[in-house]
Amino acid sequence: MRILITGGSGRLGYWTVTELENDFDVAITDRHNRVIHGNASLIQADLTDLGQVYSVMAGVDAVVHLAAIPSPIGVTPDVVFENNIMGTFNVTEAASNLGIKKLIYTSSCSAYGFAFRTTDMVPDYLPLDEEHPARPQDAYGLSKLFGEEMVAAASRRTEMMTVAMRIPTVLTPEQYAEEVPKILAGPGVPAIGAYVDARDVAQAIRLALENDELTGYNCFCIAAEDSFSRQPLFESFPISFPGSEQVAAGLTGIQSSVSIEKAKRVLGYQPRYSWRSLVRR
pTM for the complete prediction? Predict the structure, then answer.
Protein backbone atom coordinates (compact mmCIF):
# COMPACT_ATOMS: atom_id res chain seq x y z
CA MET A 1 0.00 0.00 0.00
CA ARG A 2 1.39 3.41 -0.98
CA ILE A 3 0.61 5.99 1.69
CA LEU A 4 0.97 9.75 1.51
CA ILE A 5 1.41 11.51 4.86
CA THR A 6 0.73 15.24 4.75
CA GLY A 7 2.70 17.10 7.38
CA GLY A 8 4.88 14.04 7.80
CA SER A 9 7.91 16.09 8.85
CA GLY A 10 6.12 17.57 11.88
CA ARG A 11 6.11 16.42 15.52
CA LEU A 12 3.28 13.93 15.07
CA GLY A 13 4.38 13.18 11.53
CA TYR A 14 7.80 11.98 12.69
CA TRP A 15 6.29 9.25 14.86
CA THR A 16 3.67 8.34 12.27
CA VAL A 17 6.37 7.81 9.65
CA THR A 18 8.41 5.80 12.17
CA GLU A 19 5.39 3.57 12.84
CA LEU A 20 4.53 2.95 9.18
CA GLU A 21 7.67 3.17 7.05
CA ASN A 22 8.83 -0.43 7.47
CA ASP A 23 5.52 -1.95 6.38
CA PHE A 24 4.21 0.52 3.81
CA ASP A 25 5.52 2.53 0.88
CA VAL A 26 5.48 5.93 2.60
CA ALA A 27 5.79 9.35 1.00
CA ILE A 28 5.67 12.70 2.81
CA THR A 29 4.41 15.98 1.44
CA ASP A 30 5.44 19.28 2.96
CA ARG A 31 5.34 22.91 1.89
CA HIS A 32 9.06 23.22 2.61
CA ASN A 33 12.00 21.12 1.46
CA ARG A 34 12.83 19.66 4.88
CA VAL A 35 15.32 17.03 5.91
CA ILE A 36 13.40 13.85 6.69
CA HIS A 37 14.37 10.66 8.43
CA GLY A 38 14.11 7.00 7.52
CA ASN A 39 13.04 5.56 4.19
CA ALA A 40 10.16 7.88 3.35
CA SER A 41 10.40 10.08 0.28
CA LEU A 42 9.58 13.80 0.36
CA ILE A 43 7.36 15.52 -2.20
CA GLN A 44 7.28 19.29 -1.83
CA ALA A 45 3.81 20.81 -2.29
CA ASP A 46 1.47 23.51 -1.00
CA LEU A 47 -1.78 21.88 0.09
CA THR A 48 -3.70 25.10 -0.41
CA ASP A 49 -3.05 24.71 -4.17
CA LEU A 50 -5.46 22.09 -5.54
CA GLY A 51 -3.36 21.42 -8.63
CA GLN A 52 -0.33 20.58 -6.51
CA VAL A 53 -2.44 18.32 -4.31
CA TYR A 54 -3.64 16.34 -7.31
CA SER A 55 -0.06 15.94 -8.42
CA VAL A 56 1.30 14.57 -5.14
CA MET A 57 -1.70 12.29 -4.53
CA ALA A 58 -1.69 10.58 -7.93
CA GLY A 59 -0.98 6.86 -7.56
CA VAL A 60 -1.59 6.84 -3.81
CA ASP A 61 -3.72 4.16 -2.10
CA ALA A 62 -4.27 5.95 1.21
CA VAL A 63 -3.72 9.40 2.70
CA VAL A 64 -2.92 10.31 6.30
CA HIS A 65 -3.75 14.00 6.57
CA LEU A 66 -1.80 15.51 9.47
CA ALA A 67 -0.83 18.87 7.96
CA ALA A 68 -2.38 21.89 9.69
CA ILE A 69 -1.57 24.91 11.79
CA PRO A 70 -1.86 23.06 15.13
CA SER A 71 -3.33 25.79 17.34
CA PRO A 72 -4.57 29.40 17.20
CA ILE A 73 -1.74 30.62 19.44
CA GLY A 74 0.62 33.06 17.77
CA VAL A 75 -1.21 33.00 14.42
CA THR A 76 -4.04 35.25 13.31
CA PRO A 77 -7.46 33.54 13.09
CA ASP A 78 -7.85 34.14 9.35
CA VAL A 79 -4.53 32.44 8.59
CA VAL A 80 -5.36 29.45 10.79
CA PHE A 81 -8.80 29.01 9.27
CA GLU A 82 -7.83 29.50 5.64
CA ASN A 83 -4.79 27.22 5.83
CA ASN A 84 -6.54 24.37 7.63
CA ILE A 85 -9.80 24.57 5.70
CA MET A 86 -8.32 24.84 2.21
CA GLY A 87 -5.71 22.19 2.90
CA THR A 88 -8.33 19.70 4.06
CA PHE A 89 -10.78 20.61 1.30
CA ASN A 90 -8.14 20.08 -1.38
CA VAL A 91 -7.01 16.77 0.11
CA THR A 92 -10.57 15.42 0.32
CA GLU A 93 -11.43 16.76 -3.14
CA ALA A 94 -8.42 15.13 -4.79
CA ALA A 95 -8.84 11.89 -2.84
CA SER A 96 -12.48 11.63 -3.92
CA ASN A 97 -11.72 12.16 -7.58
CA LEU A 98 -8.57 10.03 -7.72
CA GLY A 99 -10.25 6.94 -6.29
CA ILE A 100 -8.14 6.77 -3.15
CA LYS A 101 -9.32 3.98 -0.88
CA LYS A 102 -8.65 5.29 2.62
CA LEU A 103 -8.28 8.72 4.21
CA ILE A 104 -7.23 9.24 7.83
CA TYR A 105 -7.72 12.78 9.16
CA THR A 106 -6.34 14.04 12.45
CA SER A 107 -9.02 16.23 13.93
CA SER A 108 -8.80 17.60 17.46
CA CYS A 109 -10.66 17.61 20.76
CA SER A 110 -10.57 21.39 20.25
CA ALA A 111 -13.60 20.79 18.04
CA TYR A 112 -15.62 20.42 21.25
CA GLY A 113 -14.90 24.08 21.99
CA PHE A 114 -13.35 23.92 25.45
CA ALA A 115 -9.64 24.34 24.74
CA PHE A 116 -9.54 27.84 23.21
CA ARG A 117 -12.86 29.25 24.39
CA THR A 118 -13.54 32.93 24.93
CA THR A 119 -16.79 32.37 26.84
CA ASP A 120 -16.76 29.79 29.64
CA MET A 121 -18.40 26.45 28.84
CA VAL A 122 -19.37 23.35 30.77
CA PRO A 123 -19.55 19.89 29.17
CA ASP A 124 -22.94 18.24 28.86
CA TYR A 125 -21.34 15.13 30.37
CA LEU A 126 -17.96 13.59 31.07
CA PRO A 127 -16.01 11.82 29.81
CA LEU A 128 -16.39 13.36 26.38
CA ASP A 129 -17.08 10.91 23.56
CA GLU A 130 -17.79 11.02 19.84
CA GLU A 131 -21.47 11.89 20.45
CA HIS A 132 -20.89 14.94 22.65
CA PRO A 133 -21.95 18.16 20.86
CA ALA A 134 -19.14 20.15 19.28
CA ARG A 135 -19.39 23.90 19.97
CA PRO A 136 -16.09 25.51 18.95
CA GLN A 137 -15.65 29.26 19.41
CA ASP A 138 -12.24 29.80 17.81
CA ALA A 139 -10.81 29.53 14.30
CA TYR A 140 -8.77 26.41 15.05
CA GLY A 141 -11.62 24.43 16.61
CA LEU A 142 -13.92 25.50 13.78
CA SER A 143 -11.38 24.42 11.16
CA LYS A 144 -11.12 20.98 12.72
CA LEU A 145 -14.89 20.50 13.01
CA PHE A 146 -15.45 21.63 9.42
CA GLY A 147 -12.62 19.33 8.39
CA GLU A 148 -14.55 16.41 9.86
CA GLU A 149 -17.57 17.43 7.79
CA MET A 150 -15.47 17.54 4.64
CA VAL A 151 -14.06 14.09 5.33
CA ALA A 152 -17.57 12.74 5.97
CA ALA A 153 -18.77 14.32 2.72
CA ALA A 154 -16.00 12.53 0.84
CA SER A 155 -17.36 9.19 2.06
CA ARG A 156 -20.90 10.17 1.14
CA ARG A 157 -19.94 10.90 -2.45
CA THR A 158 -17.56 7.96 -2.98
CA GLU A 159 -16.79 4.51 -1.61
CA MET A 160 -13.74 5.82 0.25
CA MET A 161 -13.35 4.77 3.88
CA THR A 162 -12.56 7.79 6.01
CA VAL A 163 -11.60 8.21 9.65
CA ALA A 164 -11.49 11.40 11.71
CA MET A 165 -9.45 11.08 14.90
CA ARG A 166 -10.22 13.58 17.65
CA ILE A 167 -7.00 13.92 19.63
CA PRO A 168 -6.23 16.06 22.71
CA THR A 169 -2.83 17.55 23.65
CA VAL A 170 -0.12 15.52 21.90
CA LEU A 171 3.07 14.75 23.84
CA THR A 172 6.33 13.52 22.34
CA PRO A 173 9.04 11.61 24.22
CA GLU A 174 11.42 14.57 24.62
CA GLN A 175 8.75 16.56 26.49
CA TYR A 176 8.50 14.24 29.48
CA ALA A 177 11.75 15.29 31.13
CA GLU A 178 11.14 19.00 31.72
CA GLU A 179 8.14 20.42 29.86
CA VAL A 180 5.40 18.09 31.12
CA PRO A 181 6.24 18.52 34.85
CA LYS A 182 6.04 22.30 34.42
CA ILE A 183 2.65 22.02 32.72
CA LEU A 184 1.31 19.76 35.45
CA ALA A 185 2.53 22.06 38.22
CA GLY A 186 -0.16 24.66 37.54
CA PRO A 187 -3.65 24.75 39.06
CA GLY A 188 -6.56 23.18 37.23
CA VAL A 189 -6.02 21.02 34.17
CA PRO A 190 -4.04 21.64 30.98
CA ALA A 191 -6.45 22.01 28.03
CA ILE A 192 -9.29 19.62 28.94
CA GLY A 193 -7.37 17.26 31.21
CA ALA A 194 -6.63 14.76 28.46
CA TYR A 195 -3.54 14.00 26.38
CA VAL A 196 -2.06 11.37 24.10
CA ASP A 197 1.46 10.25 23.26
CA ALA A 198 2.37 10.79 19.60
CA ARG A 199 3.38 7.13 19.38
CA ASP A 200 -0.12 6.07 20.40
CA VAL A 201 -1.67 8.30 17.74
CA ALA A 202 0.63 6.61 15.22
CA GLN A 203 -0.54 3.23 16.49
CA ALA A 204 -4.18 4.26 16.01
CA ILE A 205 -3.43 5.42 12.46
CA ARG A 206 -1.90 2.05 11.67
CA LEU A 207 -4.92 0.24 13.09
CA ALA A 208 -7.27 2.32 10.94
CA LEU A 209 -5.22 1.74 7.80
CA GLU A 210 -5.07 -2.01 8.38
CA ASN A 211 -8.76 -2.37 9.22
CA ASP A 212 -10.62 -3.75 6.20
CA GLU A 213 -14.02 -3.93 7.90
CA LEU A 214 -14.57 -0.19 8.29
CA THR A 215 -16.70 1.48 5.64
CA GLY A 216 -17.91 5.02 5.09
CA TYR A 217 -17.13 7.75 7.59
CA ASN A 218 -15.90 6.99 11.11
CA CYS A 219 -15.00 9.21 14.05
CA PHE A 220 -12.87 8.09 17.00
CA CYS A 221 -11.49 9.79 20.09
CA ILE A 222 -7.82 8.83 20.45
CA ALA A 223 -6.31 9.64 23.84
CA ALA A 224 -4.36 8.18 26.74
CA GLU A 225 -6.16 5.99 29.23
CA ASP A 226 -5.43 8.36 32.13
CA SER A 227 -5.94 12.07 32.80
CA PHE A 228 -3.48 14.91 32.29
CA SER A 229 -3.63 15.99 35.92
CA ARG A 230 -1.87 15.06 39.14
CA GLN A 231 -5.18 15.32 41.00
CA PRO A 232 -8.40 13.44 40.19
CA LEU A 233 -10.35 15.42 37.63
CA PHE A 234 -13.33 15.83 39.93
CA GLU A 235 -11.00 18.16 41.90
CA SER A 236 -8.98 19.85 39.15
CA PHE A 237 -11.47 20.10 36.28
CA PRO A 238 -13.82 22.63 37.99
CA ILE A 239 -10.82 24.92 38.64
CA SER A 240 -10.41 25.36 34.89
CA PHE A 241 -14.11 25.05 34.06
CA PRO A 242 -16.17 26.81 36.75
CA GLY A 243 -19.60 25.33 37.20
CA SER A 244 -18.56 21.83 36.16
CA GLU A 245 -18.45 20.37 39.67
CA GLN A 246 -21.51 18.19 39.14
CA VAL A 247 -20.62 16.95 35.67
CA ALA A 248 -17.04 16.15 36.75
CA ALA A 249 -18.04 14.42 39.97
CA GLY A 250 -17.98 10.95 38.41
CA LEU A 251 -14.37 11.21 37.21
CA THR A 252 -12.57 9.34 39.93
CA GLY A 253 -8.99 8.16 40.28
CA ILE A 254 -6.93 8.84 37.16
CA GLN A 255 -9.86 8.63 34.72
CA SER A 256 -9.48 10.84 31.64
CA SER A 257 -11.96 13.45 30.48
CA VAL A 258 -12.05 11.77 27.05
CA SER A 259 -13.47 8.30 26.46
CA ILE A 260 -11.59 5.93 24.13
CA GLU A 261 -14.03 3.05 24.48
CA LYS A 262 -15.18 3.22 20.86
CA ALA A 263 -11.60 3.16 19.50
CA LYS A 264 -10.76 0.24 21.77
CA ARG A 265 -13.85 -1.69 20.71
CA VAL A 266 -13.75 -1.02 16.97
CA LEU A 267 -10.06 -0.53 16.18
CA GLY A 268 -8.47 -2.58 18.95
CA TYR A 269 -6.68 0.58 20.11
CA GLN A 270 -4.86 0.33 23.42
CA PRO A 271 -2.64 3.24 24.53
CA ARG A 272 0.85 2.16 25.56
CA TYR A 273 2.31 5.34 27.05
CA SER A 274 1.45 7.33 30.16
CA TRP A 275 3.12 10.41 31.59
CA ARG A 276 2.84 8.73 35.01
CA SER A 277 5.54 6.23 34.10
CA LEU A 278 7.63 8.63 31.98
CA VAL A 279 7.83 11.73 34.18
CA ARG A 280 10.18 11.75 37.16
CA ARG A 281 8.48 12.46 40.43
Answer: 0.96
